[in-house]
Amino acid sequence: MSTSTATPVTVTVTGAAGQIGYALLFRIASGQLLGADVPVTLNLLEIPQAVKAAEGTAMELDDCAFPLLRGINIYDDAKKAFEGCNVALLVGARPRTKGMERGDLLEANGGIFAPQGKAINDGAADDIRVLVVGNPANTNALIAQHAAPDVPAERFTAMTRLDHNRAIAQLAKKLNVPLTEIKKMTIWGNHSATQYPDLYNAEVGGKIAAEQVDETWLKEEFIPTVAKRGAAIIEARGASSAASAANAAIDHVFDWVNGTPEGDWTSAAIPSDGSYGIPEGIISSFPVVSKNGKWEIVQGLEINEFSRQKIDASVAELLEERDAVKSLGLI
Ligand code: NAD
Ligand code: LMR
């Protein structure tokens, strides 16, 4: 066993028996989410039909004999699963099925994320941090946040780190440079096909990325490849990205808790404070640094006319989603 005598951090994972859950839980238990000396207790939340599968995953977690894993609890009741929770990874969501309208999808997810937000409000620890992965992630995070009025709004975030990592990987491949040469990448807006990966502020070897690629590639290949990568993975794998999504969730929480490296930033969807003209309150992706356990939006970046249009289009989609959940009484 780990010799750490620290109190374990309680991490609640919803959708624990799903694909992302399977790729995520072992990495959390091995210390990659919070740090190699931080013991964890895992609370797994599933729907009743999937509890048995979650039990199977828990058996495998036991069989890894992870020194940092101090306990596993499995629940089909959100109230119990979020009791005393410090980090909540909201992965389980209602997928869009054939013939389902967007309003139906938002309503179905409201039925998941509003009660989970309330359970977080009522039972989570004071230092609770929430990352929503389940789609539509930004708006699901907004629903959960509104159901948790006693929790500071900034503790509710949604994942665009996968998009951020995808953008870095595509650019590094194009320029045939190590990934570590690329800094200051930003994903703006929604985790959807309208997202805007910004190369006008990103740097490669200290120089502006947009100046090192041709404009046609940037506009006609890079942006759509990153923005539609999720759909391309589904097409190729027959299932949505799981290991890369789990990896991005680990990156997001690790940086949130431990801080982002000096001289760089990352992307996360957090409640807007009105920066860059993005309406206050919506959960939009921004360039962010984490300092003292808090996300801060990187200020003062230049937004050219092209970027402005792309950001505005994605923000318009977020506003439509917000208005739809408002009219459903979910926020
Ligand atoms: P999956 O279908 O394999 O697993 C989802 C799990 O959630 C299932 O086990 C299901 O039983 C569970 N679940 C459903 N409702 C629940 C509830 N109310 N409480 C607890 N658990 C519940 O799906 P997956 O591949 O693991 O993906 C999960 C979600 O993540 C999807 O919405 C997917 O679109 C999304 N996703 C987001 C990103 C991102 O970058 N933000 C990337 C990839 C996938
Ligand atoms: C992704 O970006 O890989 C996912 O959000 C795609 C999806 O619809 O699950």
Automatic annotation (TrEMBL):
Lineage: Bacteria, Bacillati, Actinomycetota, Actinomycetes, Pseudonocardiales
Organism: Pseudonocardia thermophila
NCBIfam families (UniProt xref): MalateDH-SF1 (TIGR01759), PRK05442.1 (NF003916)
EC number(s) given by UniProt: 1.1.1.37
GO biological process: malate metabolic process; tricarboxylic acid cycle
Active site, UniProt feature: 191
Positions of the Lactate/malate dehydrogenase N-terminal domain: 10-150
Short name of one Pfam family: Ldh_1_C
Catalytic reaction(s) noted: (S)-malate + NAD(+) = oxaloacetate + NADH + H(+)
Name of this protein: Malate dehydrogenase
GO terms assigned for molecular function: L-malate dehydrogenase (NAD+) activity
Source taxon at top rank: Bacteria
Annotated positions binding NAD(+): 15-21, 109, 116, 133-135
Keywords: NAD, Oxidoreductase, Tricarboxylic acid cycle
Family: Belongs to the LDH/MDH superfamily. MDH type 2 family.
SUPFAM superfamilies, sorted: LDH C-terminal domain-like, NAD(P)-binding Rossmann-fold domains
HAMAP family assigned to the protein according to its UniProt record, in alphabetical order: Malate_dehydrog_2
Function summary: Catalyzes the reversible oxidation of malate to oxaloacetate.
InterPro entries: L-lactate/malate_DH, Lactate/malate_DH_C, Lactate/malate_DH_N, Lactate_DH/Glyco_Ohase_4_C, Malate_DH_AS, Malate_DH_type2, NAD(P)-bd_dom_sf
Lactate/malate dehydrogenase C-terminal domain mapped to chain residues: 160-326
Binding-site residues for substrate, renumbered to this chain: 96, 102, 135, 166
